[in-house]
Amino acid sequence: MSEVANLGLGLVGCGTVGTGVVRILQSSPDLLTRQAGKRLTLRRIVVRDPGKVRDTDLSAWPVSTDLTSIISDPDIHAVIHLVGGIEPARSGIISLLQAGKDVITANKALLYSHGEELFSLAKSLGRTICFEAAVAGGIPIISAVNTALTANEIVSIEGILNGTSNFILSRMLDRRQTYEEVLQEAQARGYAEADPAMDVDGTDAAQKLVILTRLAFGTSVSLDSIVRQGIQHIELLDLIVAAELGYRIKLLAASRLSQGGLEVSVQPTLVRADRSVALTSGAANFVAIEGNAVGVLKLSGAGAGQLPTASAVLADVVDYATGRAALTFAAMLRMQDRTPIALQPQEELTRRQYLRFTVADQPHVLADIADILGRNGISISSVRQDETEDRGDDTGVARLVIMTHRTTEGRLRAADAEIAELRSLRGPRIRMPISD
Amino acid sequence: MSEVANLGLGLVGCGTVGTGVVRILQSSPDLLTRQAGKRLTLRRIVVRDPGKVRDTDLSAWPVSTDLTSIISDPDIHAVIHLVGGIEPARSGIISLLQAGKDVITANKALLYSHGEELFSLAKSLGRTICFEAAVAGGIPIISAVNTALTANEIVSIEGILNGTSNFILSRMLDRRQTYEEVLQEAQARGYAEADPAMDVDGTDAAQKLVILTRLAFGTSVSLDSIVRQGIQHIELLDLIVAAELGYRIKLLAASRLSQGGLEVSVQPTLVRADRSVALTSGAANFVAIEGNAVGVLKLSGAGAGQLPTASAVLADVVDYATGRAALTFAAMLRMQDRTPIALQPQEELTRRQYLRFTVADQPHVLADIADILGRNGISISSVRQDETEDRGDDTGVARLVIMTHRTTEGRLRAADAEIAELRSLRGPRIRMPISD
Fold first, then answer.
1. Is A38 a catalytic residue?
2. ipTM
3. pTM of the predicted model as reported, rounded to 2 decimal places
């Protein structure tokens, strides 16, 4: 290659992913220059705590706590912004855009809650925001929706978008361990946060799904408007029973066009063991996207981790350096202007269901539950009650698993409200849709 | 959207995929305009036989047999060229490039044999060639290599790149049918050509692999320089034995960096039944690409078919219309200028192997084969000989399956040459690597 121009970059935030970005910039400069057609030059780093010990030496760069060091550097064209949470990330990105910098971010929570604000601001300023790394880490799902499936009306997107919960569910079954045991191990190994609530209650997956849903269908949804359940109440028993029936339980995030509108849900779901989504084990992510022309396209890979996420961030940087990113962002904004597809009312979501109850080991409990289901128009396809230890009194508990035929979320909620009142109930009521 | 410019397109060739392109252009004009930022206007169609009955009405367009009708139309900027084979496709594309037209092609055989010539010509003329549809149909593998994994040194690409052979292998096992029975059905259903040689002997997959290898590693290889075997000699017995051992047999195309250089091979391969590549059934394609940062990224979907392939063609058209395609093509050309990675000598390829012999049901046959393997330094890990019908004479045949420990292609070839001389041999010698 003859003369190459320089592309000046800033980096805000140097935690796990930021350090990964620095490592790749240091280890593969020639590759990146060739790909980008420009020399990618990291000029400044802004972090909260410059004194923090990092596993990569940052002494080659001016490191500051002051975002204005980047804002006021006229040779920085794009900023890799790897700060989590809403504030100060939001204000920082707004300042950068207003200063004429383009932004590469991996902040899913921010794009979920303020994506429209930021995209709209970038549009009005003629700036570009790249965010491949915000959803499913190293899997190029944003790019698939924005560039590979452009000739398709999207029919559905579904997948495993949270690695922590997938790790927990996979490990519980493989090792026959309880939720608590596996969670502790995941925390010890750094797969789960000290406070894992966002991962295990479905929030993280739902935020990613909302971003994908906006891209694929033009529909903006809030977490409150979608069916969302986490994995916290799943017991080893559920995983084992599901496995015996030929299923795996996966925290499945899905947006799907149906006759009633767009179905959006994040729920632990029974999927057939021989489907590739069921093979997604450990902390991996999986996305299946269906287009009306291409059919179902499946992608799987590392949904998190230092280098996979940094790989996605730097793919954005290269895309930006070549000029592609601005064109893709403009196309994405055009697509956001579509008439959005309306959300299907939650009550109308129709699926087969797996129901599991922990009940007193007493006569008539099954009859009570079956009666409630029947009166709510829910048809039972199979029942399984495990043998329990007979303590000679009424203190024993039994676990009752009921598989239903296709039924609506509305009927299930009505039945569940009645079942919740039963005095024979001895633990949480678990229900999960079955995907065939 | 306010005013949109027009992008004039020509179409050369209107067979299955071309008809699919016309169908999508007709059915989704608004979507395509929004994605492309321009109105995609098909201006002229050139076909060999304008009188041919097609399942889509072409009467809205001037249809001619004369490529100059497109060449001389100044309002046609890009040409969707869907003619198979080498000539006249090569000459036609050259004429179009020279006339200042950019080209979108799905012609894998042409890109295999003349890709470098065409890319070099396009470069010198400042033109762009798009070819997402040439490899793995609807799976955006070209885009993955060219844009999603730009921050990665590619470590390996492997996958199922030929749908016909995958359909045959899947169906043989599922239905317990012979190769000939399934091939006939595949031909009847249009999955296999009247002459299926290129599909079943590995040529088609190898040509696609060569294209991917050039993109991913900068290395140009010819079919003769790679290890290549087809599926023609695989018997139902092999599939059943492999299944009993926990494997599926897949025609696996693989390029992989190893210490000795780049290993490139297309071979029926035993893959563990619980790997996602093993789940790829029917006419689907699968590609796993490993980058040093992102890890293993897996993609699967429709590798052929009218609409999936047309979806990829139109993704290229949209990419072209936005301006992205020219930038990606320029980056690809920069990457082709790398120092290519040298091919590992075929003899050094080292894998475990599945060997199957059809031998006379006589004493000492196993000892003879084991002796030859041993003298060639090939270590046996397991042996299985099926019971045969005892005809009371020496006319019976037995099928002998030997699994080896890791050994080199060179040793296997030497041993095979000796075994081929054994007078007790009664049929073809099958050998397949085992991928763990």
1. no
2. 0.94
3. 0.94
